[in-house]
Amino acid sequence: HSVATPLGEWDFDSIPEFLQNIPGAYVSDIPGTNDIRGLRDTYLGLYFQDDIAVRPNLKVNVGVRYEYLSPLTEAFGRVAVLPTIDAAAPRLGGNYVDSTKLNFAPRVGVAWDPTGSGKTSVRAGYGIYDALPLPYLMVNRTNGAPFFESGVVNSPPPSTFPTGATALVGAHGLRASYVQPNQPRAYVQQWNLTIQRQLTAQGALTVGYAGSRAVHIPRGVSDFSQVPPSLVTTAPDGNLQFPTTGPIQRINPNWGRIPSTVWDDVASYNSLVVDFTQRLSRGLSFTAAYTWSKNIDLGSATFSANESINGAGNRYPFFPSLDRGPSDFDIAHNFVYNFTWDIPTPSSFTGKAKALLGGWELGGIFSAHTGPPFTVSLENDQA
User: Fold this and answer.
1) Angle at 264 between CA 323 and CA 35, to 5 degrees
2) Reduced to 3 states, what is the DSSP secondary structure of residue 352?
């Protein structure tokens, strides 16, 4: 049995309003409800690969991967999602997510020794990788009415505090869920180019570029029922201007909140990679690696606004470009140093002493990186 807020939650917009008993919202589950779900799907993956030696100093690797994912459904038919954002009633039964049948993902790689001496190597690769809609995407999407009844009452009467507001969580306050139907194929294109050169008898330097671009990535929206875009204008300073007079209007007044998943996020990654490896005498070797990168997307959350400690909810979900910026997990600079040392075994060791005390290695790793980005935000929803 799983519930969200079985005892109810009172929210006050400020300390003065709390002291005056002017509640801003009340959130509660309907007694007896639960959101346990038996999500089911079937996955199948196949892969073909071949290495081709075009010339003695040029090799090509080609491959293709095929992945099939059956429709994501619920074992007992407890599927309830809105067919459209403004729908008055949910669609009951069927699938949360459609099947994916055309996920053919090609890959190709090239390794070239331009001088034929074995001291220089040029490598390049390209591939497509599918981002399959696995069951984790449905976290917070399986708890919509009527199978899970939880809702919110905005600005409840002060007289209902502390025990009288649950009765107000009715048809217009219950939570619904929306999952975009006919989901497009979500996939990532990745590519890289590296040049490696042997500088000393035991040392090699690698410099390279790696990048990727993802499209149709699922984006989680905490509440899609906000002010309709038709009522939003652009202020002279370029910011969005929301209505400031009259009653608050929502795109779907039939429900209290509509957590949603839509497949419209895009992301890009670009990086410079430098790696130096050196083998010294007496079994000592070390590697130093540095990456300078930038990861940009329209939102890093897939099912909740607080998946990362620095995450921020969508500013206004109808204009995703407002959220374009560094990903929650973007790390601009990353440095890693490691070493290993083959501890010498005295020649006098034999038998059990050699077996127990010989062949040991000592290793260490040091890493340093810059921190992730953060966003200054307001607690209350201005949209």
Assistant:
1) 95
2) helix
